Amino acid sequence: MRRRTMLLGAAMLPVPARAWAWDGRTVDVLYAGSLLKLMERGVAPAFDAIGDDIFRGYAGPSGALVHQIRGGLRRGDVFISADPALNGRLGDLVCWYIIFARSPLVIGYNPQSPIVDALQTRPWYEVLQLPGIRIGRTDPALDPKGALTVHMLQQAEAFYHQPGLAARIMGSDRSGQVRPEESLVGRLQSGQIDVGFFYAMETADMQIPSIELPPELALAARYSVTILKDAPNPDGAARFVAFLLGKEGSAVLRQHGLEKMAPVLVGDDRTLPALVRAVIRP
């Protein structure tokens, strides 16, 4: 019988690193919450099928994962972030990282929401200011998507000549808009919110109708991958990264709506595993 992929739900509380058990075959991947479905239903089973390694994933906001890794609350082999700059916050735990994919910010909406007609006939920024509209976004302090959302809304003020637009849409800190990244899609689909800010790969993968932003406002996540310096299973980690960036992994990324980029290596080339080097520099 084929072994099952090991996946840890993103809603789990952080656990001390010593509570994790490694058997020499498990590859622990800490990854951005926006990649949850891609990892669970795409990458994990495909990676498990090609060898003896076992994928074990944990999803969360990229910034929050950095805090957990630095604080010793979360340990893993591979870290995948939606903002390459976050790798720098891990200090000497990261010698290099590779930027490999991107996905632009979009506005997703529930097709059963009463504001759908307005979204289809009026400018999006007017609709998002309607009384009673329920908006969802992630925490800009913990999640790159939340930070991109705030930045986009601030840019929209000048683009649409609408001073104060960002503040009117986001409301006060008590407005209830900020939600955990891993639950935002579910809240939209269940009707708890009318609209939310997502990456295009999320809305495409989950078949959520969305509104694309003008090119001048189309900020995008850029995904990076690295092997942590203290990885318990560095060999398995190298095999995983080589798979992710290789032909089979790239096909899975495209199937789930992620825009594959030509790999960009940042950092110390001398510490790059040979398997990974062979993929990005054939």
Automatic annotation (TrEMBL):
SUPFAM superfamilies: Periplasmic binding protein-like II. GO terms for molecular function: molybdate ion binding. Keywords: Signal. The keyword Repeat does not apply. Residues 1-21 form the signal peptide. GO terms for biological process: molybdate ion transport. The keyword Metal-binding does not apply. Pfam families: SBP_bac_11. InterPro entries: ModA/WtpA (IPR050682). Belongs to the bacterial solute-binding protein 1 family. WtpA subfamily. This is Extracellular solute-binding protein. The lineage of its organism: Bacteria, Pseudomonadati, Pseudomonadota, Alphaproteobacteria, Acetobacterales.
